[in-house]
Structures are given as structure tokens and as C-alpha cells.
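Feature request disguised as a bug report, sorry. It would help if multi-protein outputs had a clear separator. Right now it looks like this:
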Amino acid sequence: MHNTGLAQEPEKAIIVAVSTPGRHDWTVEDRLDELESLLRTAGARVEERVVQNRESPDPAYLVGRGKVDEIEELRKTLGAGLVVFDAELRPGQRRNLERHIDCKVIDRTQVILDIFAQRAHTREGKLQVELAQLTYSLTQLVGSRELSRLGGGIGTRGPGETKLEVDRRRIRQRIQGLRREIESVRRHRALGRREREKAPVAVAALAGYTNAGKSTLLNNLTGASVFVEDKLFATLDPTTRRRRLPSGQELLITDTVGFIRDLPHDLIAAFGATLEEITEADLIVHVVDGSHPAAQKQVETVERVLAGIGAGDVPVILAVNKVDLGVRISLPGDRPTVMISALSGLGFGGLLSAIDSELGGKRQVVTLVIPYSRQDLIAVMHEHGKVTSQDYGQDAITVTGEVESVWAKRLLRWASPTSAKSEDGGETTGGPKGD
């Protein structure tokens, strides 16, 4: 009989990176530190790091042919069963490496997908992870060694164990089915958001680099019980909780999946329904681990991802977390910034005041055509601004007022806007938008 009570021995891994003179965003040490953290989260133990300095990556092997032989000798000496490359491998490179390295050869993207496969617990999360895995595997099919022949472990969990053995047509069919199911989830989530929007409650999304402390912040701000662990991607599924602000108004706070540098495009696309929680929020609280050696680069990475998913125009408050451990980040002067400790509660008062100020401090002039069935929207305008004129027509009321920007954005979605004018005179127009 097998003793299931014994902990599984971590896979022994060798990690490999290429250092080129043109790359200055992350040092090779930072990249390998993060890859080691990813593998530790996935359940492996890094035995050795291999770095090769090159003018450019080798098109056939990523590293040089001689370095491949060194890696195989090192693998034999250490008894490693896994070699992981920091860069994404092309199918031809993977095929060439597998001919000379007698173990699983995977890349950073597969490690991230594997972690997501382990962390996905809800139906929505599992659908999104499977879509990302299959989309990635489709690009890697040509010449790939069947993963079922390699055994289990990192890089082979989830649908990868069986799906790579079927042909492209069946994988594409499954991808189409997953996209239909995720679209259904997207519609359901959108309905839920519209229902939440009917209540006069603003929404703040917690965004940030993985392991920055977003879930700890949500738990200690709201009394939530989101799973927290000192590992990457501890949270995959968004959780929303309520908190009253110093002004008295209520706020919904949503915890979201963490970002990471070079986040696989397939993963961003697969998690589109979840990431809409960020793009549709009234405010983003960008949580950053201020004590991390690469904190500045992590901030820049998150900002790029936010812009890439269409959230670049959402107001942002930077919450520099873990300040009790020291701060290694240059504080920006172009946005509201607060110093906090999500664990101890330090700085929570300042954070809530900053949220209050951001939500209520900016106003826009809007003119709306409001159906008689939605006169409650006029009450919202009175509550969050000042109504300056009302013109009663046969089917609707044309209302002009100066409203807090957050609520102006919502009102423009709820009613049929004729125009929306900001304080500086800029004007936007929009077509009819139903509820």
C-alpha cells in the first residue's frame, strides 16, 4: 500500500537564462530569483542556475550548443529531472533541447500555467486556465515530445497530460467550447456588475504584482477571509467585500489576480472576464511590495499590464505595502501615494482618506436624457453633485448637473447621454446606453 501521508519530494530543477547586452529592464539575477520563486510555488527545488552571456539568443537552442552539453552533464551530476528556461522557447528550440537533455525541458510560461492549474478552484478559474494551457499547447504541438511519455509534475498538470496527444482539430474544438463557456461567464459577471452599479456604491479594484499583499490588505480592511500564502499567485478568483469610508459612503473592494513580468498573452486573454473587474472599477488601488528589491520594475510592469487591458484611464492610488520591512522604491509625484502595512494596519486611515478624496474630489458637468422609469438617477445626481437644470419632455427628462467624476461615468452608462463636459471644458459624447 502507498503511504499517502508522506509529502511529495520536490522536483529537482536547473534554471537557465541568457544575458544579452540589449536587455536592461530586469537584471538576470532578478529574473532568475523570480523564476526560482515560481518553481518553489509550483513544487520544485532549484539545484543550480546556469547563465550564458551572448550577443543574442541562439536560434536553435536559445543557449549555445556547448552550453547544452554542459547542462546535460550538470543534470546527470545533480540528478535533476527538470530544466527550465527563463525565456519562452520556440517549438524548434524545445525539440532541439529535448534531443540533448534527457529530462523534461520547459519554459517560464509553462511554470506559470502550471501554478494557475494548481490554484484554480472555481469553475470559472478552471475554464480560464484550461483555455490558456490549450492555446499555448497548440503553438507548441509541432515536434513536441508527448508529455504523457514524460510522466507527471511541473509543466504537465491539467489538460496538458492528455490534450497534447490529440490533433490540432480536436484541440481547436475544445478551445472554441471553452471560449463559449467563458463568454457565458463574462455575461453573467457583467449582469452582476450592473446590479451592483444600481446601488450607489463605488468599486475599488486591488491590483498589483503577484505576492504584493493584496489579499492581506482586503482581509484586514474588510474582515474577509481570502486565502493568503507567501507564494506567487495565491489568489486567482476575484473576491469582493464592503467597507465604509471616513466620509460615510460605502465602498466595494475587489481583490484580483496578481500580475507578473512578461505575463503570457494567452493567460491575459483567457482571464479577460476576470480582468474586467479592474477595467470596470471606479478606482484602482495599485498595491506594491515596497520592500522588494525589484519594486520599481514591478510597478512599471503592472502599469504596462493595466494599460494593455484597457484600464489606463481608471484613477489609481499607489499603496506602498510592507513599509515596516523598509522601502526600496522611488515614490512618484504624479499620483496619490500612501504608505501602508497590510499586515499590521499601518496607514489604513490614510489609504481610506485617499480613496475618499479620489472618489469625491473631481467633478464633471453632464447632460443626460433620463427615462421616467429611471428617475432614481436624478436622486443619484443630487447625492453626488448638484443638479442645475431639468427639462421635462414627453418620454424623458433632460437633466444637467455637476457630478463627482466616478458617478458621472456611471450615469453615462445608465442613461442616454447627450454630452459630458469636464471642468476644464473638454467634451465627450456617447450614444444611448441601456441598463
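(second protein starts here, but nothing in the output says so)
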Amino acid sequence: MYDIIIIGAGTAGISAYKEAIKHTQNILIINDGPWDTTCARVGCMPSKILIAAANRAYEMQNLNGLGLTAKVEVDTSQVMQHVQQLRDRFTQATLKDVESWKTEHKISGHAEFINANTVQVNYQQYQAKNFILAVGSSPNIDAKLKEQISDRLITTDQIFELKQLPESIAVIGSGVIAIELAQAMHRLGVKTDIFARSRKVGTLVSKNLQQLAQDELSKELNLHFEILPTKYSRTEHGVEIKYRQNDKIQVLNVDYVLSATGRQTLLDTLHLEKINSDFSDLKKLPVDPNTKKLSDYPIYIVGDAHTNTPIQHEAAHEGKLAVQNILRNNQTANVKTLAPLGIIFSSPEMASIGQNIKWLENNEINFITGFVDYAKQGRAIVNAKNQGAVEIYVDKESRKILGAELFCHEAEHLAHLLAWMVDESLTVDDLLDKPYYHPTIEEGLRTALKHARRQL
């Protein structure tokens, strides 16, 4: 019997293995599919490679704000090869690490539970005192639509395998992945249409910033809010889409349809009902949101397999701390210890830190909002990237930073500063005593903090 069996070798599973091997050799990690991570193969890394190329191409062709004019022709014929080559470099680094693990510690194959302490893989059974389930997730896909348009319906797991950029694409969804990829495709010269079930882009909760983001992105992108296609038809060279807009049936022909409507857990592959019949409904699994423990069983579900925040650094953190909980003989401690931090790599970028305004209002927290308009911020104007705004939420009594939302250029860097502020329980007064070099985009945070302090 093993001390720990880890199922899944993505970010959370690899992190769990690296922590467990420090303390015991009596472990096993089982993986069905590639021994690398969603992030490296089809997520964070290839998407950022594509976005980097797209943003550089866009900036080269939009120089007016810098007092420059130029006739620039951008050749995008090698973009997908560049994405794939660099993507493969990142995945190979992970695979090289996995290859260094002892052979007896890893098995390739599909695992499913026989009972609470037994799994079956390749017709053999393995038992463990503890389990860590890190099976991850897969993109949502409409099976009926897949039948209709076949290989012309692609997901985020497939888009990075295209040999060349398409001439046109329809993106279904307006969440994180949809907005990132749609804008990148558009900036690389792909005719892009985005169909959104709701009137929302990304994950911004602030009504002010959400509206600002919709307005700003609509200047560049062809966003169809609260509209979904009513009919898809496979054509010789792509897909014909029909949709209703302004009380008229519109027709759109595209090379591909990208389904970017979120991801679903792969826990259903494990047959958790063999552990307990109550676990047949995955939406009602009794997983502690803080410890990630499954009911009273010595089983932890970490990473994208069961989360509201499918974020790489959180998955790695959960995998490591789940092992530490097991080593404490299941004296469970909170594994959700990181200040919430989410970033969307659109242009301008979006970010959320700590508690958002909706949570604060619903929990009747007494807070004020510090605001800065980045359209008027000095360094942003100099960079010709003066778009968006930032809101910082401050507790009225303690004066501590509770959270923030951002929609501005360089938000990925500002978001880290704010996350550290939240994590350290710093106050407005603490932060306004820090140095702010001039002229920098960080000065915008000082403007928002001053606005908050004036209200206090």
C-alpha cells in the first residue's frame, strides 16, 4: 500500500509529487495523457506567445500616438510555427523533469476508483492510504455542434495546432480565454467576430470598469453582445453562421469556430461514486473549499479539477499544501492561503486582486473606493497607452487594502504590487509612505490611494 497516490500530472500533480518525494519514496503518480501541463501545452504559455506577436504587430502599425508615421507591412505567415516551436520548448522542460523521476513512481494510464483506498489502472489495482486528485479539466464542447461542423469547430486545446493563421474565425464566448485569443487573432489580421451570451467581457465585477472595458474593446473588436448564432452549416471551405441582430438574420462565413465557453472537470473519469454513492453528482461534491479535502476521506482534490479559480500558481500551491496536510496525518489546514490574483492578458489588461466590490457589498463590508483614470495618467499618456482605470477597495475602519480591480496597460505588474499589499495587510497610510518614482505607471496607484485617503 502506498502512502500517497497522485492522479494527474499537470501543475497541481507535479507540485504534489515534488513535495511528497521529499518525505517518502512510497508514492505513485498516475497520468492519463501527456506528462506536461495544460499551462505549458495549451494554456498560459502558447497563448502568451501568440499575444506577444499580436501586440507587437499592432504597435508597429499604430504609431500615431508617439508622433511617428510609418508604412509597416507585417508578415504573419510564420506566427503559428513560432508559437509551436516556443511552446514545445516549454513543454520539453517539463517532460525532462518528469523523465528524471524513478520509473517505479509513475504509471501512464486511465485510473478509476474501485473503492475508497483502491484504484485500477491498466487492469491492475493499486492501494493507498491517501489520494491527491489533480486530473485537471478539458474545454467545454457542444457535441451536437461538433457533429454539424466537424473539424471546423476547435477548442483552446486545438487552436495552437493550426499550421497557419486562418483568414477568419468566430469566437463563442467573451470570458478570459475568448477575449485573449480573439484580440490576438484580430491583431494578426484574422477577421474575428465574438459572440457573447451576456453583456460582459472578462471577469471584471465592477460595473464601472466592466462598462469601460466593453466600450474600449468594442472600438477594436467586433463584439456581438447577448447574441449567439442560431444556425451553423458546414461549407466547402469553412462554416456558414446565421444569427439575429437588429431584428434581421445575418450571415457570416468563417474558416473556423472557436468554442471558448469555459472548461469542465475531468473528475467524472475517476468513478468517484465507487467511493461513496453520494459522489455521483460532481456539482454537489462535499469538497472543503479551504482544505480541498473530500468529505471525511483522506482524499484531496486540487487544481483545476475542482475550483472557481483555475490559475496556475494556485494549482501548484494547492498540490504542495495538500501533501503537507497528509503528512500531518490529515490534520487539515487551509490550502487557500494566497491573496486572490487573476490577470487577463487583453490590451488593456484586466486584473482582480483580493475581494471584489460585489463580494464586499454582499458581505456588508464598510469600505470606500479609491479611483484613478489612466486616460489622464502622465506616464500612460507618454506611452500612448492612456486607457482604462483602476479601483482600489479600502476598509473604512482598519484602512487596510481589501482588493482592487484594474483595466489598464501594464496591469499585470500593478496587480502583483496590489496583491502583495493585500497579502501583507497594509494600510493606505503604509502605502502612501512608500517611494513612487516619477514618471511611472505606479504613480497611478498613488493617485487612487490618495483618492481613498481623502474619503477616509
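Even a blank line would do. Unrelated, but nice: The first strand starts at residue 2 and ends at 7.
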